Every structure is written in structure tokens, then in C-alpha cells.
């Protein structure tokens, strides 16, 4: 599927951030947990799966199969990892947001 | 742990819709979440949320797709094909035996089926065959009942006029090899019917030229396609003229398609009825009459009416003789299987033998199938470890089945053309060597086609079933554990079948030996006359002076020992005549076979006299020479001393005796018919101008034969240039009477070869199977110290058990079957011990060769190869 330009959706951004941050196994459940932990948002697992797939299609993530556990009934996980393109994209997007944000008068956040 | 899993039905729903490549990760995540929620929120909530998540996962991108899989499937078929090919190349002998064995069995089974269908649909060619009946005559005369296939000329028409249920009738007489002249060419081998105009209307022969009015006018002839081609080549035969017999000119009025081989009406030409003057005699049984009854008519009703009507003509028929006449009806399609009547032109077949054939077909097919399965199983068993490991690692049963299907398809693609080829060759062989004709239309018969398809489907299905059973998980696990040595039920069934095949072969071998014995007996038996070096010439002219000068001329020739004439020749249709013979209670009338011959007859054939003497040589032809009878006649008349008794006859229509005289000699029985029949009583008298000798017997010295034939022919042509020169050697003719038996012998010879082949296949396949199964055992034995010879015998021991079983079954059957066949002969051989021992020895040899091959292989195995996987 062709990406419509360089925009990153809101959930996409969140998921990308999670993948970039998490050090342990990055897969559906851990991303969902992390997002909930950070934002309090309870995203449905299927949405997370979809976004992860989309990001992989766009080239920002790679994935591999690995790690079955008993809780999962012996089923393996699909583990995701940030690509160089993904990292660049993330930095690009955040930088752009920061730029715009800096121009808002009277903001109280400290930007470094 | 069960309580900690989410509800099964939701799981099932998920695995149903979800794309298999995504299923694992999605379901895994869902399970993990479920476990968390179970702990934190309790079961109810966890279940609910699980359901919700599952429903949410029902997205377009997660659902199973068909199209990408299609490409995979094609690739998979091609792959399986390549694998199958490679598999076959790896095991060439096995593959060869499998396909050849299956092809031979299938083609033979199909050929037999075609034959059975051919026989069972005899005369079904005619569209309304269910309504066509032949009239036959049942004559009782002096307490003797004779059933004739012929009836008085007028009976068909009379019955049709009298009984409304009879829609039509037709009749014909049979001319034995009449002569046709076409310019300067002579033809004398064409079966001819003289048929009335309804013949073509009632029967369903297809007209290629002309119309069905062809037989309505006199001097018309209808030719079959082949005869038209024989007479006229590729020219149009319609309208041409053919000369027939003594000056008849017949115009070709129609040409019909060749009649089918499976019909009792075999003819090449039909001549119209009105060409000849027929005396509409009621008193002679000369014609074959057939009736066509209406479509919805009850046959029993018709039969009753016929009996009633015949009463009206009864006196016309039996006015001279003291007897009774009954008309019987039999359906045209049943003629082939019914009893042989007097003067019957139909070829008869025993219905029981057809049923036996059906049994043989089934046995043959099952045998071939079992062999095929056995060999497949053997190959599989060798690779079962590999298969089960593959299975554990996730090889889907579906894909494995695909491989099996393609392998079977590949084998079938080789088998089918082979079957077609064998079948065609078999048909040709049957026609040339066994004179068994199977009509080509039978090949299109629905029964045959569906049987063929049924066979193929069975092969396919049973192969699949067999292998599918083997790929079941339970089986594979047991295989891995190494626990599957003899496979219980499956193998016992096969053992029984192999024993069955073996007993079949033993029966065949034994029967062939008996048949050969009987034929030797026939050739060496004392027939009561000497038939060596005698050639017989057939004279068509009734001119007695001509015959006499012919005989005289031949007597002068070099190398001729004796010349004699007779009215009789082996194989002609005999007619019985009425004679008056002397008994204690006066002259009694009897129907007896008779022959008239010349004075030298008995000397020529070296027939011995029991009492009295032959016709005096120096007596002039006259009426006073008296009669000669054979021993059987003397016994039948109750005469201890036959010489001197009075005989009058033959009696003509007006009860006038042709001659009256005393018996001057009693000859020892001589058997002109086959050993199938007992010798019948016969009266012999001297030939004269009215009772001539159509057959001239010439006894020659063995040296001059070739030249003699040319000289005799020249003499013949000088006297009768218009007639064909027909002659035969008496001993060849005599043997040709046994044609049906020779056919049986040929069939048995073929059957023997086939059954031995199948037995070998069977033993080979089982032997291979056992070899592979017990290879581990053999390996261990060898390690423990068994000598190769011991292993060899161990392997063979199984088969010796088979042999014992087979012999037990076979011997009573051999006795029964041979008894049945030998009963056909009034004179036959008696079975002795050797008849039973020889087949047993043969069977043992077969086993030694086929099973021995495997035995040697297993005796020479390197135990390391077998045991290193343990």
C-alpha cells in the first residue's frame, strides 16, 4: 500500500514512539501496555496490530517471529524493531512539532 | 490449566476466519491479554473482553484469502508430480511390476467382462427382440421325444392368421454353402438363408442400399456389406446380377450392414423366398419360423393359443407317422443359452460357464488390486520413518494426500494406455486363435464402460484409503516408536488372497494337464476305424454315372490304395429316417440314423465286422443286398444275433419302404462323431441311383499325396468344370469336430499363463512386504549368528504354509471341475495320483523362484544397515 505522503497518524506516532522506547520484547501486548501506561489510553489490540503492520509496510519497522510462552499456549510473537528510516521519521516528526510548538506564545513547557 | 483458557468457541471462530499466517501471533496476543485480565478482573470480564477483541480482529486484512493460495496449489501439483516421478525412478522394479501387474489384470478383467456382456446381449441387436420368438417342434415318435429347431414351412403364417396377438412372422431355410458364380469366379463359402419378405421388416438390419421390400419379389438377393465387397470390390453392387446354383439369376436388391457377431443368425446373403418353388408341405420340418408378438402381450397366453391352434394342423403334420407334434416358443434372446436342438443353427453357450466367468473376473480384479496395494505398501513401509518425522514437523496431511493423488494419477496415466493396448491385442488374439468373436458394439455398451470406470475408481479409492490410513497420526506415532511389525488385520487378509491366487494357479495347472491328457486320449483312442491318409472329396452333382466314372478314374491313379463312397461325412447335419425293424411282436417303426455307401467302404476305413460280412463285391447294384447295422443298433433292437433279421426302409411319406431285406452283417461300432457322444445305432445299405454318394473317400499311400491331389482335381474339373473342388483330409476333419474343445484348451492355456503371472505377482508383493517388515528381525537374527541359509528358509516357511492351504482348497475343486468337464465325453481318461502331485510341484517351483528372490535379499542384508537407526 502506498503511503499518502509523509504524514504520520496520531496512533501511528504513539506506536512508533513505543517501539523506539521499549527495550524488551516489542509486540502487540507490550505496546498496548506501554501506551496505556503513558497515556491512559486503552487501545484495542487489533488496532495496535493494524498500526504495527502499517508501519512495517511503510518501512519504519521490521519484524521477526520468536519467543513462545506458556501463557500464550505455545504461540509465538511477532517482535518489532525500529529501522533507520523509522528512527529518522520519528525524529523528523517530533522536531517539526517542536518547531511549531515553539511558536505558540506563552507556552509553559520547557523545551530543550 | 483448562480453566485458564478462553472459551473454545470463540477460539474456533477466530481460527475459522483468520488467515493462518497471522493466526498465531494474533491469537497469542489475545491469550496473553486474557491471562492478565483473568488475574486482575476475573473470568467473566476476561471472557467478555476476549470476545470483544476477537470481534474487533475481524478485519479485512486478517481474513483468509483464496487467491494467493491458488498459485501455491498449482505449484504443489507440479511438485508432487516431480516427486512421484523421482520416486518411481528410485524403485524401478517395484514400479514396473506394479504398473504391469495392474495393467494385465485390468485388461484381462475387462476383456472377460466384454466377453460376458457379448454373450449376455446375444441378439439384443434387434430393436424388438423382446417380442420375437422362434417356433420349434417337439415330436414324439414311438416313445422317443425329439426337439427340432425346424418347423413346417406354413406354420408361421398360419399361426399369425389365427392368433391376433401375433403381429407378424418371418421364416427362412438354411442353405449349406451353395455356389455363386460371378463371371468366371466361383464362390462357395457363403452362409445363405432363403428368407421371406418379412425377414427384413421384423429384424433390425440396417439397409445401406435398397429398401426392405428387397425380398418381396422372386430372383432377388440381399448381400451383407462384406459380401458385396467380396463380390464386387468397390463398385456399386446394387442392381448387379449373380448366378446361383443351377441356373438361377439373382439381382442384388439391397445391401445391409454386417450382422453383429453376437447374434445366432449368421449369414452372408439372403435370397428371396419366392425364387424357389416351395411345396407348402406340412409334413416336413424344413424351415425356421419366427413370430413377432404385440408389445404388451402376455407370452403365456400366446403359448396357450399356439398349442390350441396347432391342434388344427396336427393331423396334417403327423398324418403318416404314429406320433404327436407340439409347437414350442422360445424368445430370440434366449436361444443362445438354451439347449441344442436338432438341426439348430445357433451357437450355444452354457449359462453356467458365463457365471463362472463373472466370478473369475471379480477374482482377477481383486487380485490385481491387492498386488498393487501390497507393493505400494511395501515401498511406503520403507520410508515410514521419514514420513512420520515430516508429519511431526508440520507436513500437512492435506499436502501429503495431494502427493499420493498425483502419484496414483501418474501411474494411471501409464496403466490406461497399456490396458487399451492389451485389450486390443487380446481381442485380436481371441478372434484369430480362439474363433471367439466379440462384437465391437459391445465396447460401447454402458455396462462395460461403467464397469471399466468402476474398476479405475476402485483402484484410486483403495490406494487412497490404504495410504490415508497410514498417514493418520496414531499410525505415525506408533511407527516412530518402532512398534508396527505385522499390522494385524491388513496382512492376514492379504495372506488369504495370496493363498487364493495360489490355489487358483494350482487348479489351472492341474486342469491343463487333464485337458492335454484327454486330448491325447482322443487322438489315440480306438475310433473303430482308421482315418490316416484318407482324403475326402465332396461331390455336388447328383449324377450317379458321373460319380462312378470319377471313382473309376481315381482307382487307376498311382498311389491310390482304395476308393469308396458314402452319404456320410463327419460334421454334417444328420437326419434320421423311419425304418421298420423286426421284433418279437412284428415290424416296429423306429427313427434311426442311416448311411448308404459303396461296397469298398468298410475296407477303406478298416472297419471290422462283428458278425456276418460286407456287401459282396461281385454283386451288381440292386435291391437285394440287404442291410448292415452296427453293434449299437443290434443292442438297441434287442438282437443278439443280428444276421438274418428283416428290415424295411427307409419309409417314405406314403409308408412305402424303399427296400426290404435281411441284415447281412453287424459291424463293430465306429465313432464318426466326437467322443462327446455315445455311438448311435446306425443302419447301412448299399448306394444306388436314388441314394447316391456325395462323398468320395480316397485312401492313399503316404508318399504320393501332394501330386495325387492335383491329379484328382484335374479329373474332377474334367467332369464338373462348373463346381468348386472341395476336399479335406479325414483325420483333420475329425479333429476339427473338437473345435469347441480346442477353444477351451486355448482359453485354459491363456488362463494358465495369466494365473501363474498373477500368482507370481502376488507372492512377490507379499514377499517384498514381509521382507521389509521383518528386516529388523532378520538383522538381529543375523547378528546373533544365524546363517544366511537359515534366514532364507525362514522367509520361505511362510509361503510353504500358503502352499499347504492352497492345495487343501484346490484339490477338491480340481476333482469337481475336471469331473464336470469329463462328463461331457462319453469316453474319457481317469484321474490318477500324478494329476495331483504335478501341480503341487509346479506351485512349489513358482514359490521358490519368486519368494526366493526376496528370501535371498533378506538373507544377505547387512545388519548394520537395518539396525543403525535404532
Automatic annotation (TrEMBL), chain A:
InterPro entries in the record: Tscrpt_reg_PadR_N (IPR005149), WH-like_DNA-bd_sf (IPR036388), WH_DNA-bd_sf (IPR036390)
UniProt superkingdom: Bacteria
One Pfam family here: PadR
Transcription regulator PadR N-terminal domain location: 16-92
Coiled-coil residues: none
Protein name, per record: Helix-turn-helix transcriptional regulator
Organism: Agaribacillus aureus
Source lineage: Bacteria, Pseudomonadati, Bacteroidota, Cytophagia, Cytophagales
From TrEMBL, chain B:
Domain ABC3 transporter permease C-terminal: residue ranges: 752-863
Transmembrane segments: 95-117, 354-373, 409-430, 442-461, 496-516, 750-773, 799-817, 837-856
Annotated keywords: Cell membrane, Membrane, Transmembrane, Transmembrane helix
Protein topology in the membrane: Multi-pass membrane protein
Domain MacB-like periplasmic core per the UniProt entry, residue ranges: 99-307
Name by which UniProt lists this protein: ABC transporter permease
Record carries keyword Cell membrane: yes
InterPro entries, per database record: ABC3_permease_C, MacB_PCD, Macrolide_Exporter_MacB, Permease_put_prefix
Coiled-coil ranges from the UniProt annotation: none
UniProt keyword Cell membrane present: yes
Subcellular compartments: Cell membrane
Main location: membrane
Alphabetized Pfam families for the sequence: FtsX (PF02687), MacB_PCD (PF12704)
Amino acid at each position: 500500500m502506498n503511503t499518502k505522503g509523509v504524514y504520520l497518524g496520531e496512533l501511528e506516532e504513539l506506536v512508533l514512539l513505543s517501539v523506539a522506547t521499549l527495550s524488551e520484547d516489542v509486540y502487540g501486548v507490550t505496546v498496548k501496555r506501554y501506551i496505556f501506561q503513558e497515556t491512559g489510553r486503552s487501545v484495542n489490540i487489533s488496532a495496535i496490530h493494524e498500526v504495527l503492520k502499517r508501519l512495517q509496510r511503510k518501512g519504519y519497522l521490521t519484524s521477526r517471529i520468536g519467543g513462545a510462552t506458556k501463557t500464550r499456549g505455545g504461540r509465538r510473537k511477532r517482535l518489532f524493531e525500529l529501522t533507520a528510516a523509522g528512527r529518522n521519521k520519528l525524529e523528523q516528526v517530533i522536531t517539526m512539532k517542536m518547531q511549531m510548538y515553539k511558536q505558540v506564545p506563552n507556552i509553559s513547557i520547557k523545551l530543550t | 490449566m483448562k480453566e485458564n483458557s478462553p472459551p473454545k468457541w470463540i477460539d474456533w471462530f477466530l481460527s475459522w476466519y483468520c488467515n493462518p499466517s497471522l493466526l498465531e501471533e494474533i491469537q497469542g496476543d489475545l491469550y496473553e491479554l486474557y491471562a492478565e485480565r483473568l488475574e486482575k478482573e476475573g473470568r467473566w470480564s476476561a471472557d467478555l473482553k476476549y470476545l470483544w477483541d476477537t470481534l474487533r480482529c475481524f478485519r479485512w486484512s486478517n481474513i483468509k484469502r483464496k487467491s494467493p493460495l491458488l498459485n501455491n496449489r498449482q505449484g504443489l501439483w507440479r511438485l508432487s508430480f516431480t516427486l512421484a516421478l523421482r520416486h518411481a525412478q528410485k524403485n524401478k522394479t517395484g514400479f514396473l511390476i506394479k504398473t504391469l501387474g495392474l495393467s494385465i489384470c485390468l485388461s484381462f478383467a475387462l476383456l472377460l467382462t466384454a466377453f460376458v456382456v457379448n454373450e449376455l446381449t446375444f441378439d439384443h441387436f434387434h430393436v424388438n427382440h423382446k417380442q420375437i420368438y422362434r417356433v420349434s417342434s417337439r415330436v414324439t415318435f414311438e416313445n422317443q421325444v425329439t426337439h427340432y429347431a425346424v418347423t413346417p414351412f406354413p406354420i408361421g403364417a398360419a399361426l399369425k392368421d389365427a392368433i391376433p396377438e401375433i403381429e407378424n412372422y418371418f421364416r427362412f431355410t438354411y442353405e449349406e454353402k451353395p455356389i455363386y458364380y460371378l463371371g468366371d469366379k466361383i464362390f462357395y463359402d457363403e452362409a445363405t438363408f432363403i428368407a421371406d419378405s418379412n425377414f427384413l421388416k421384423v429384424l433390425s438390419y440396417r439397409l445401406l442400399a435398397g429398401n426392405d421390400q428387397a425380398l418381396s419379389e422372386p430372383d432377388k438377393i440381399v448381400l451383407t456389406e462384406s459380401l458385396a465387397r467380396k463380390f464386387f470390390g468397390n463398385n456399386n453392387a446394387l442392381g448387379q446380377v449373380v448366378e446361383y446354383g443351377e441356373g438361377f439369376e439373382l439381382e442384388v436388391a439391397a445391401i445391409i450392414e454386417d450382422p453383429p457377431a453376437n447374434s445366432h443368425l449368421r449369414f452372408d446373403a439372403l435370397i428371396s423366398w419366392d425364387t424357389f418353388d416351395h411345396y407348402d408341405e406340412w409334413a416336413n420340418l424344413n424351415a425356421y419360423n419366427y413370430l413377432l408378438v404385440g408389445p404388451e402381450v402376455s407370452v403365456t397366453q400366446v403359448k396357450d393359443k399356439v398349442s390350441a391352434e396347432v391342434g388344427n394342423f396336427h393331423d396334417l403334420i403327423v398324418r403318416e407317422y404314429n406320433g404327436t407334434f407340439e409347437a414350442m416358443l422360445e424368445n430370440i434372446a434366449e436361444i443362445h443359452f438354451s439347449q441344442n436342438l436338432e438341426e439348430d443353427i445357433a451357437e450355444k453357450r452354457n449359462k453356467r460357464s458365463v457365471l463362472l466367468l463373472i466370478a473369475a473376473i471379480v477374482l482377477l480384479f481383486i487380485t490385481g488390486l491387492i498386488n498393487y496395494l501390497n507393493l505400494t505398501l511395501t515401498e511406503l513401509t520403507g520410508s515410514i520413518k521419514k514420513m512420520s518425522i515430516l508429519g511431526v514437523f508440520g507436513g500437512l496431511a492435506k499436502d501429503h494426500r495431494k502427493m499420493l493423488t498425483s502419484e496414483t494419477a501418474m501411474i494411471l496415466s501409464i496403466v490406461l494406455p497399456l490396458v487399451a493396448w492389451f485389450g486390443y491385442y487380446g481381442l485380436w488374439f481371441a478372434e484369430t486363435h480362439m474363433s471367439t468373436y466379440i462384437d465391437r458394439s459391445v465396447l460401447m455398451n454402458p455396462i462395460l464402460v461403467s464397469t471399466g470406470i468402476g474398476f479405475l475408481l476402485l483402484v484410486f479409492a483403495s490406494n487412497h484409503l490404504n495410504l490415508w490410513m497410514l498417514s493418520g497420526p496414531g499410525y505415525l506415532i506408533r511407527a516412530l516408536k518402532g512398534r508396527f511389525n505385522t499390522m494385524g488385520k491388513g496382512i492376514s487378509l492379504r495372506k488369504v488372497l495370496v493363498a487364493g491366487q495360489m490355489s487358483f494357479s494350482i487348479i489351472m495347472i492341474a486342469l491343463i494337464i487333464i485337458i492335454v491328457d484327454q486330448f491325447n486320449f482322443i487322438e489315440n483312442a480306438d475310433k473303430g476305424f482308421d482315418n490316416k491318409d484318407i482324403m475326402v472329396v465332396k461331390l455336388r452333382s447328383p449324377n450317379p454315372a458321373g460319380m462312378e466314372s470319377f471313382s473309376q478314374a481315381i482307382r487307376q491313379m498311382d498311389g491310390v490304395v482304395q476308393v469308396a463312397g458314402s452319404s456320410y461325412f463327419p460334421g454334417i447335419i444328420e437326419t434320421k429316417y423311419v425304418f421298420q425293424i423286426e421284433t418279437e411282436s412284428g415290424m416296429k417303426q423306429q427313427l434311426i440314423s442311416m448311411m448308404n455307401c459303396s461296397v469298398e467302404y468298410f475296407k477303406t476305413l478298416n472297419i471290422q465286422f462283428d458278425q456276418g460280412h460286407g456287401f459282396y463285391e461281385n454283386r451288381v447294384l440292386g435291391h437285394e443286398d440287404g442291410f448292415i447295422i452296427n453293434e449299437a443298433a443290434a443292442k438297441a433292437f434287442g438282437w443278439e444275433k443280428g444276421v438274418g433279421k428283416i428290415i424295411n426302409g427307409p419309409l417314405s411319406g406314403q409308408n412305402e419302404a424303399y427296400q426290404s431285406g435281411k441284415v447281412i452283417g453287424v459291424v463293430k461300432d465306429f465313432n464318426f462323431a466326437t467322443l462327446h457322444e455315445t455311438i448311435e445305432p446306425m443302419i447301412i445299405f448299399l448306394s444306388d441311383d436314388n441314394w447316391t454318394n456325395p462323398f468320395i473317400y480316397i485312401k492313399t499311400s503316404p508318399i504320393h499325396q501332394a501330386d495325387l491331389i492335383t491329379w484328382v482335381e484335374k479329373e474332377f474339373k474334367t467332369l464338373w468344370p462348373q463346381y468348386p473342388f472341395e476336399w479335406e483330409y479325414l483325420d483333420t476333419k475329425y479333429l476339427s469336430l473338437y473345435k469347441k474343445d480346442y477353444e477351451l484348451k486355448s482359453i485354459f492355456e491363456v488362463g494358465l499363463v495369466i494365473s501363474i503371472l498373477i500368482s507370481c505377482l502376488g507372492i512377490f508383493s507379499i514377499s517384498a512386504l514381509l521382507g521389509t517388515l521383518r528386516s529388523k528381525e532378520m538383522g538381529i537374527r543375523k547378528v546373533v549368528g544365524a546363517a544366511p541359509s537359515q534366514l532364507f528358509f525362514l522367509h520361505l516357511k511362510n509361503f510353504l504354509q500358503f502352499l499347504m492351504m492352497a492345495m487343501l482348497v484346490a484339490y477338491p475343486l480340481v476333482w469337481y471341475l475336471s469331473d464336470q468337464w469329463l462328463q461331457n465325453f462319453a469316453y474319457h481318461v481317469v484321474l490318477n495320483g500324478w494329476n495331483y502331485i504335478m501341480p503341487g510341484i509346479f506351485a512349489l517351483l513358482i514359490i521358490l523362484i519368486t519368494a526366493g528372490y526376496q528370501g535371498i535379499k533378506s538373507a544377505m542384508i547387512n545388519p548394520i544397515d537395518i539396525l543403525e537407526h535404532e
